[in-house]
Prior knowledge:
single chain; four-stranded antiparallel beta sheet; membrane
Amino acid sequence: MRGPHNIWRLIRTGATFERTGAMTVALEAMEVSPRLRFAARLLGRPFRFLGLKGDPGLPPVTRAITALGPAYIKFGQILSTRPDIVGAELSEQLKYLQDQLPAFPTEEARARIAAEFGQPAEDIYSEFSEPVAAASIAQVHRARLRHNGEEVAVKVLRPGIERAFRRDIDAFYYAAKWIQRLAPFSRRLRPTEVVAHFDSVVRGELDLRLECAEAAEFAENTLKDQRLKVPKPHWAFSGRSVLTIGWAEGIGLNNIAAIEAAGIDRAELGQRVLILFLRHALRDGFFHADMHQGNLKVSTDGDLIVYDFGIMGRIDEYTRRVYAEILMGFIRKDYRRVAEVHFEAGYVPPDRDIDEFARALRSVGEPIFGMEANRISMARLLSYLFEVTEKFGMETRTELILLQRTMVVVEGVARSLDPRLNMWEVAGPVVENYIRTSIGPQALIRDLWRTSRVLARYLPKLPSIAEAHLQALEQKPQQSRPPAGPGLGKIILISALTSLVTLTIAGSILHLI
């Protein structure tokens, strides 16, 4: 599938942007230099007739993206949360991609439900509405369960969506491969691995059984979070292509006028969106990774409602600690510590100069502080970071792609509610609390306790392991034996005793705490 025929798909992408007028609009919105704009237009104009026409009733960029297919729509959804990158006008136009795409017929949805569960939709739902929202992968219907009368949302995959995504992603793989060949400097960014990561995320989103499991886990983790509502899924009425989950009534976060009319504090809501995301990422290592306005609502009493769990992110505890220390270092302007953490984690090659790296980080961080939040250009900041990573040979960390992307989206959502919001000021208390509980003395004792428990499981095997090694040593010729000193059996015995002592001490201290 990843052969030269993908050239046609890539040419048609550029041609579609040129034919719909999206090329000019997009480049101007992102403040691309006139020279590059001219070059792009010059290259795209000969192929203009090959472009897709799209819906003439839509603005140019939205028209081009919807014509090109679901993978492009996903990218457009991300840009819709970044007015600081694409401008307020284009950002507002792209919000159309979040949940207002053309729907497929309700009868097709009913047929898909019947095929999934082996019974007509009418036997499961006493009420089943026309589509209330349609996105790139699925559409949602409002329904009522027949057996208990509960109001639910029913998510149904679009027909043929798997094939459509496969086509787009194949073209992305092909483009990434040639980018690496033609631009060797891009290899450190690992474009192929980035596409592979996106591919794995999409594959998970195309199986609604996985989304059902993610929704259930997220609901359990956030049960005690105040002013947050998470609809719970219904396993009995969910499958590969259909998901049934509790209905969430509220105002979409993309409807600023309605939020103001309801008397909801936009600034506080924006801060809460950012705080909850950071808390879930750091505390749980499991976070909603598609938090654009189309997946967020606010109830009339001000509670934040999160739904659509097709893309969720996970980060292990070690990475969480590294990320928290990096954030805290920037917040405290301790660029030396930020540099040390990068080196300790292996993010920067060990042969690079740590002092020089710290100075480079200062050049990225300092412009953020002491500046009005609405004057900070995320595009410029990312440009600076790119220059630093290129200079110091840092490679793209695929395990952090989803976290970093979601942080950008969440900041965009929060900024849409409060344009003067400063991400660093809001993040400070959350990160400090995580460091206090996860990196301080109490965390050290907890780590010792966990390590000791793992070692303790092997204690019953230690005598047989020691005996086997001693017998092996005795069977070797005298000249091949190691010099006099503590035998392997003694070393193993000492290790076992040390493990037991550590286990006892850590357990006692943890119990007292």
